[in-house]
Amino acid sequence: MSLSKPPSVSNTAKEQESSRRVIKSTPRKRLLRVLIPVLLAIVIVATWLLLNRQVNSTDPTVAGRPLSNPHTHLHTVALGVKPGVVYLGTHYGMFTSTDDGRTWPQARGVLNSLMITSIADSPANPNLLAVTAIPISGFGQSMGTYFSSDGGKSWQAHNPPNLSASAYPYTIKAGPASGQFYAYFISAGLFETRDMGVHWYSITNNTLSNMQVPSLLTDPADPDHLILGGDQGLYETHDDGHSWNHITAVKGNVYSIVASGTTPRIIFCATDQGIYYWHEGSSQITQLATSPMASPPTRLAIDATGKTLYALSGQDLWYSADGGNTWQHRWHFNRGDMVSLLVDPLHPDHLYAGFFLPAEVLYSTNGGKSWQVLTN
Questions:
Q1: What ranges in the chain are assigned the alpha helix state H?
Q2: Which of 343, 188, 371, 161 is nearest to 259 (CA)?
Q3: How far are the Cα atoms of 175, 179, 222 from residue 189, in angstroms, in the given order?
Q4: Does residue 208 contact residue 228 with C-beta atoms inside 8 Å?
Q5: One-character DSSP codes across 85-123
Q6: Burial class (CB in 10 A: 0-12, 13-18, 19+), 323
Q7: What is the Cα 208 distance to its own chain's centre?
Q8: How many CA atoms lie within 13 A of 156 on its CB side?
Q9: How many CB atoms within 10 Å of residue 267?
């Protein structure tokens, strides 16, 4: 019978020391395994917050230039009822100038947590404003229509009731009566309010409620008269939407509808088939003869007399001094992301052109022969 050799004193000491090291190191490793993901998460969140703050900063980077923030998109340009008032609907709220865009006193836009996609100023009371808006982050404020009774100082959200989740606010227009506005929601149709959004009424049928990229023309003399066009053609109502008449003489998808300020009005409608015009109340609708434009115009702008007409074909601006009978090429824009083309109602040679991104507004005082930057 053999006996095993007892461990030496030195080996026993080494094993005890190794065991103590394992006991000490194990809690450290466990602590590191917990701390490293936490530290990484803190670094990631801090970096995201810093980047998000930089990306979503609502302030213009240059004082007096509302579009100087490089992350700002321009969604619309609108002219106020009062002379000299210009509105910009941007990715970070709405900016207002009262001197034809020469100065912009706001340090940041109102409703600056919202994208302002369309703006309407009431002709009956210029202190009554309405906008369509989309939340920047998707959280917090609601998407839809907002109203102001004090010239844009304070706002209230008022949407038509029971809108579906797919309803998307597309545009808003002012009617002639005080507090009257029309809002079109994609996948829901056209709604009317006569009390600044407190009460709404649906005024389109199922067919018209499914129009894509609709154009709406209101009547300053008749709150019940509307003309609505889109991919399904051109329609008209004289009874506030109770019935709609399909204007079959106008062919194609409707891009733009404008009217003069005369009595009766001269109405122009641009479609993918060309330009149509008629005098309000007349059943005689005429398609303008083939123009020198390479493609049918997608935007029209008109002065109060109806004689001065502008049309955007592709990136080219065309001008007519005789109601569209003859045309002159005025300008070629170097970009195709135009969001607004407007004529100053008091000065037919004064034009505004707004562009999406980089956000920019151009201004012409000679009918589009030359342009300068109004703001960027």
A1: 9-55
A2: 343
A3: 17, 20, 21
A4: yes
A5: -EEEEETTEEEEESSTTS----SS-BTTTEEEEEEEE-S
A6: middle
A7: 21
A8: 9
A9: 23
Query: How far is 244 from 258, CA to CA, in rounded Å?
Result: 19
Q: Could you tell me the two tokens for 248?
A: 């079959």
pTM above 0.70, yes or no: yes
Q: Provide the token pair at 142.
A: 């609601």
Give burial (CB, 10 Å; 0-12/13-18/19+) of 239.
Answer: exposed
Query: Which tokens sit at 278?
Result: 């008629």
CA end-to-end span of the chain = 100
* Residues 362/376, Cβ–Cβ less than 8 Å: no
* DSSP secondary structure code for residue 208 in this structure: G
Exposed/middle/buried for residue 333 (C-beta within 10 Å: 0-12, 13-18, 19+): middle
Of the candidates 343, 337, 342, 341, the residue with the CA atom closest to the CA atom of residue 359: 337
Q: What are the pLDDT tens digits along the chain (376 aa)?
A: 444 444 444 555 555 555 555 445 565 555 455 455 555 555 554 454 444 445 556 789 999 999 999 989 999 999 999 999 999 999 999 999 999 999 999 999 999 999 999 999 999 999 999 999 999 875 567 899 999 999 999 999 999 999 998 999 999 999 999 999 999 999 999 999 999 999 999 999 888 999 989 999 999 999 999 999 999 999 999 999 999 999 999 999 999 999 999 999 999 999 999 999 999 999 999 999 877 999 999 999 999 999 999 999 999 999 999 999 999 999 999 999 999 999 998 899 999 999 999 999 999 999 999 999 999 8
Distance CA 168, CA 333 (A): 30
Q: For residue 332, what are its two tokens?
A: 């070629």
**In the structure encoding, which two tokens stand for residue 114, read together?**
């919202």
Written as one letter, the residue type at 43 is V
Of the candidates 367, 371, 368, 354, which has an alpha carbon nearest to the alpha carbon of residue 116?
354
Enumerate long-range contacts of 173-176, CB under 8 Å, 24 or more apart.
173/120, 173/216, 173/218, 174/120, 174/121, 174/122, 174/123, 174/128, 174/130, 174/218, 175/218, 175/223, 176/123, 176/124, 176/218, 176/219, 176/220, 176/221, 176/222, 176/223
Residue 360: strand pairing partners: 355
